[in-house]
Amino acid sequence: MIALQIGSRIALLACMLWVFCLPFSMAQQTRFTSIFLFSILGGFLIKVLTEGFDPWRVPFRIIRLILPLGLIALLPLLHFVPTGNNTRELLLNAPLFLVPYILFYLSRDWPKWHSKAIVFTLAFSFVLLTGFLLMQGPNTVWFSVRSETELPDIFLLARPQMGFLAGVLFFLCRQQFIFLQKPVLSAISFGLTVLLLFWILSKIALLAFISAVFLCWVIASKSKPWLFASQITLLSVGIFLVFWKLMSSGLVSEALSRDGLSFEKYPKAYVNSINSRVVLWRASFDLVSRSENLITGISSEQLVTELDFAVGKYNGYLQTRHLNPHNQFLYMLLMYGVLGMVCWFYFWSSVLKAIRKFPVLISMWCFVFLCSITEIFLDREFGTQMYLLMIFLSIRVLPDIVPASPAENG
Question: Which CA distances in Å does 281 have to 160, 205, 307, 323, 406?
Fold first, then answer.
């Protein structure tokens, strides 16, 4: 029996090693996590060769939920088939097509604690990474991220990715470990996450995280009508006041002006970030407004050239940096046109429909959605694999979707 389960055991070990390495894959020029994904594929092949393939092992309900990921993985074929472009994107998204199915196929043989072990392994690895940064000295990190100076000693610090992972981990841990939902521990974990996001200057992640936690609090109070109504009222008033303050302050109009925010009035680290994104979004909208781009999208090689040219009309310096649109939705629209946006919204509707009964998961995906407004995560190894892992762990907690495994039944 042990020999027959060797494929599943290898895949479980590879899955743990893959998750442990994910935080460190944020390092520049580091692309080693795919090794363990291939090991998971190897475990799947061993299982199929030794035990045969069971086409009904993964229920259709799960296949329907992971289908949007497969469609996103196939989108690069739009330009690859006729021109041979988008090779990088096709290889980068390949795990989204097969790995979710393989994980659900094999996880029925894994012990019932495997979901908690995966989250714990990811958290432990992230703590090690954070500890490494702290060893460089908090002030060193503080001043380096604000002066935009790249120091070799902290090359592992990728602010948007680290902020993204910190927020996702908070919600995954709260979902998997019930003791973290106690008020004191919940407040401590929330405070530490906020402190970390502020320390590394992950601005949008900080705002998205606070918003998502508040959303979780509001959703959890639905069973108390008066409390729920009062929270919704306060939230609506708060959003209105913030919107009114921003519009009346002239900050928005100044940011959208050709010169952007003033360096004399605001910190340099904030001004550069906001001004750069406004320019990138303007240039992206210029490209999208062309009818031929809206329908078919632009291949990756052509997009770099065309976006640089469009950016150069607003900012010559940014043109030399060859930046991406810094918005996941614009990126999907630019790369794959209307079909890309249809697949993207299909993915989100599928996820939200599945997790609608789980406030913590709704908040986690809300956090992901907000972070995607100013960053692109599905154009790098870390991002695609984080989406893969979040989908797997999110669906694993749905009792009406995932059947009990033999290991869970004892």
Answer: 18, 19, 10, 11, 50
Which alpha helices (H) appear in 250-380, and where do they start and end?
251-256, 268-288, 291-296, 300-312, 316-319, 328-354, 359-371
Q: Among positive and negative, which fits the CA dihedral 303, 305, 306, 311? A: positive
* Cα–Cα distances in angstroms (integers) from residue 285 to residues 242, 289, 299, 370, 375, in the given order: 26, 6, 16, 19, 16
- Is 299 part of any domain? no
- Tokens for 270, please give them: 């904030």
Task: Provide the domain limits for residue 54.
Answer: 6-249+327-409
Predicted TM-score (pTM) of the model is 0.90
Q: Is residue 173 part of a domain?
A: yes
pLDDT of 231 > 80? The answer is no
Q: Is residue 62 part of a domain?
A: yes
Domains in the chain: how many in total? 1
3-class DSSP state of 64: helix
| pLDDT attached to residue 1 | 44
Q: Given a cut of 50, is residue 151 above it in pLDDT?
A: yes
CB 208 within 8 A of CB 169: no
Give one word for 111, left, alpha or beta, with left for phi > 0 and alpha for psi -120 to 50.
beta
Asked if residue 133 belongs to a domain, the reply is yes
